[in-house]
TrEMBL record:
Organism: Aeromicrobium alkaliterrae
Main location class: membrane
Domain of life: Bacteria
Entry-linked Pfam families: Branch
Protein name: Beta-1,6-N-acetylglucosaminyltransferase
Keywords of this entry: Glycoprotein, Glycosyltransferase, Membrane, Transferase
Compartments (UniProt record): Membrane
Membrane topology of this protein: Single-pass type II membrane protein
Length: 314
C-alpha cells in the first residue's frame, strides 16, 4: 500500500481580486488553507470563500515594511493550528495572485521525493555590493511612509523615506551576529518542525528590531532564521548560494515568477511557465486565469517541460 503523502497547509496573502483567491482556494480544496487579507481591504467578499480559515487579527500590510512579516507570523500561527501534530507536515506560502499550473498531486510528490525539507533558496545580503548591503545597512521606513498613491503626499512620503535612509547612520554588519542575513523569495515551503524551532526567535523583539528598518524584510527574515540555524540550514536545497551577478528574483523555490516581479501574466507567458518547471505561477489576475491555463495546456501538449523546477534539474 503506498505511503500517504505528508500534509501541506497553504498560507495565502491577499489584498485584492477575491475571485482569484476563490479560484485558488478551490484548486487547493482538501488541504488546509489559511488566508490573510490586508486590513485595508474590504474582507466581505473573502468571507464566503469555501474551505479557508481567515486570519481574524489582520495586519495593515505596507509593501516593503515589517508589517509583511507580522502578517506571515499570523498565517504561520493559524496554519500550525490547522496542522496540529501531523507528522512530516509543511506550510507553503502563496500570494492571492498565484495558481497551480501543474496538478497539485505532482507538487506533493515532488515535496515527498526531494531530500531537503526546507524550500527556501537564499543568497548573501552582506556581499560587498551596495545594492544588497543597503537592504540591511540603511534604515528604511516603508511602514511609516508607505509606498503608493499619487500627488504631493506620495512624493512627500518618498522624499521622507529617501532622506532618512540617506542621512541616518549605517547599521554595522556585526549588529546581526550570530545571524547571517540572506535574501530569498517570499514564497517558500517550511516544515512544521522547522517552524516550531525558529518561530520563538522570529517573535523575539530584539531579532525583530534588527529587521524592522530593513528593506523588504519578508524576503530576508525567515530565510535568515532558517539558514542561520545549525540544523535547518543543512536541510535546504543548496545552502546559501552565490549570487553570481543574478537578480534576487532569479532564485525562486517552486513557482514561476517573472524576473521583473511586477509583470501580470497572460497566455503569452505560457512557454516560460512550462519551461520553468514550476508548480505554481504568479502574478495572475482572475480575468486572465482561464487564458493562462489554456495556453499552458497547449504548450505542455507539445512539450511537457521539465519534471522539476529549473533549479532542481540535474
Amino acid at each position: 500500500m503506498p505511503r500517504p503523502m505528508p500534509e501541506i497547509a497553504f498560507g495565502v496573502l491577499a489584498h485584492q481580486d477575491p475571485e482569484m483567491t476563490r479560484r485558488l482556494a478551490a484548486a487547493l480544496a482538501g488541504h488546509p488553507v489559511v488566508l490573510h487579507v490586508d486590513a485595508t481591504t474590504d474582507i466581505t467578499p473573502f468571507r464566503d470563500i469555501p474551505g479557508v480559515r481567515l486570519v481574524e487579527d489582520r495586519v495593515d500590510v505596507r509593501w516593503g515594511g515589517f508589517s509583511e512579516v507580522e502578517a506571515v507570523l499570523r498565517v504561520y500561527r493559524d496554519c500550525l493550528e490547522e496542522l496540529g501534530d501531523a507528522p512530516g507536515s509543511s506550510i507553503a506560502l502563496l500570494s492571492g495572485a498565484d495558481f497551480p499550473v501543474r496538478p497539485l498531486e505532482e507538487f506533493f510528490a515532488y515535496a515527498e521525493s526531494v531530500p531537503w525539507s526546507e524550500h527556501v533558496r537564499a543568497i548573501p545580503v552582506l556581499d560587498g555590493t551596495p545594492y544588497m548591503e543597503n537592504k540591511v545597512r540603511r534604515r528604511h521606513f516603508y511602514d511609516a511612509a508607505p509606498v503608493g498613491g499619487s500627488g504631493f503626499s506620495a512624493k512627500r512620503r518618498g522624499a521622507t523615506r529617501r532622506g532618512l535612509s540617506t542621512l541616518l547612520p549605517r547599521v554595522k554588519p556585526s549588529a546581526f551576529e550570530p545571524l547571517v542575513p540572506v535574501w530569498g523569495s517570499t514564497w517558500t515551503m517550511l516544515s512544521r518542525d522547522c517552524l516550531l524551532d525558529i518561530l520563538p526567535q522570529a517573535h523575539d523583539p530584539k531579532v525583530q528590531a534588527l529587521f524592522r528598518r530593513t528593506q523588504t524584510p519578508l524576503e530576508m527574515y525567515f530565510a535568515t532564521l532558517v539558514h542561520s540555524h545549525p540544523t535547518w540550514s543543512t536541510r535546504t536545497e543548496f545552502g546559501v548560494e552565490p549570487r553570481d551577478g543574478k537578480w534576487p528574483s532569479e532564485f525562486p523555490n517552486f513557482s514561476y515568477i517573472h524576473p521583473t516581479l511586477g509583470v501580470w501574466l497572460d497566455g503569452s507567458y505560457a512557454e516560460e511557465i512550462v519551461e520553468s518547471g514550476g508548480y505554481f505561477a504568479r502574478k495572475i489576475r482572475s480575468s486572465d486565469l482561464d487564458e493562462v491555463l489554456a495556453a499552458v495546456e497547449q504548450v505542455r501538449a507539445v512539450s511537457p517541460g521539465p519534471s522539476a523546477p529549473r533549479a532542481q534539474q540535474a
